Amino acid sequence: MGKINIRRCQRKNLLPALRLMRTCVNHLRRKTGKEPFRWRISKIPPFFDHLLKTDPNTFYCAISGEKIIGFAGAIIRGKQWYLAYLFVHPRYQNKGLGKKLIQKVWLDSQGMSHGLCTFAFNMQAVGLYSKVGLMPLCNLPRMEIVPDRLKKLKPTGLKIYDTPTRADITWINKLESKIRGYPHPSEWRFWVKDDLYKPHILKYRGKRVGYSVIGDDYQIAPAGAISNDYLLKVMNETLRVVKPKKGGKVKLWCPTLNINLYRFLIDIGFRASEMEIFMADKPYPDWQRYVPATLAVI
Known about the structure:
By secondary structure, this protein is an alpha+beta fold. It folds into 2 domains: 5-133, Gcn5-related N-acetyltransferase (GNAT) (Aminopeptidase); 143-291, Aminopeptidase (3-Layer(aba) Sandwich), CATH 3.40.630. The protein is 31% helix and 30% strand. It has helices at residues 14-31, 46-54, 97-105, 123-131, 166-179, 185-193, 228-241, 259-267; strands spanning 5-8, 59-64, 67-77, 80-88, 113-119, 135-145, 159-161, 197-204, 207-215, 220-225, 250-253, 271-280, 290-291. Strands 1-2-3-4-5-12-6-11 form an 8-stranded mixed β-sheet, with helices on both faces. A 5-stranded antiparallel β-sheet has the order 7-8-9-10-13, with helices on both faces. A hairpin with a 4-residue loop joins strand 9 (207-215) and strand 10 (220-225).
């Protein structure tokens, strides 16, 4: 292995980093007997760009010659450290590079928690993360359905609005401090402004009870509510307004610790297509009232 430089990631590194991610993911999928993802990469996804802007000091690249062979990025929200990305080119795996990248992006202080998500079938990664003190705490199956297989959903009595006000966003951040552990105001500013995402606020008799975000890929992520019962109703009403294009699928990550939500999704036609594992050194979030955002931010 030649000389490898590890340095802070810049915006110009994001496209090569994305291509590295594709190489790593598809190598693992082929290795475990799964179909590779068809993933066209021509420009930087806005949310990927957003995370680098919010946490530039915890995004690093490993470079050999002129090629990016490793990439790691972590975000910090309140006292939650979260590993959004860690990828090492297959040729350079099992040589300690992944551990070095984790050490570069790792932050710790009194009361800080650490977490991440990884593929359930990537036992090598599970082992690596276990060595830094993270434990598998919850499975996150990726639930999918094509619209014509979705059972007709009845109204729940909630009203859903697709133009959240500033007061609504303030309420969401306050709720997320309870159900996520810490609020994510920077993500909400992004979701509200970006046309690829459609945030919703849900009310019952004029009172806010939950929220959801629908992405351009028809993924519902995140969603939250003041109770488990209301979370099911929030998901019900959000599913009633999702309108995928022909061939599109509605998707979300369902925490298996939320048995009521999992059964609800199965009963209306959803099926699990992938399995991720949430790992952390402290239990969070409140899975009874929360559905994860993109796995890069949970």
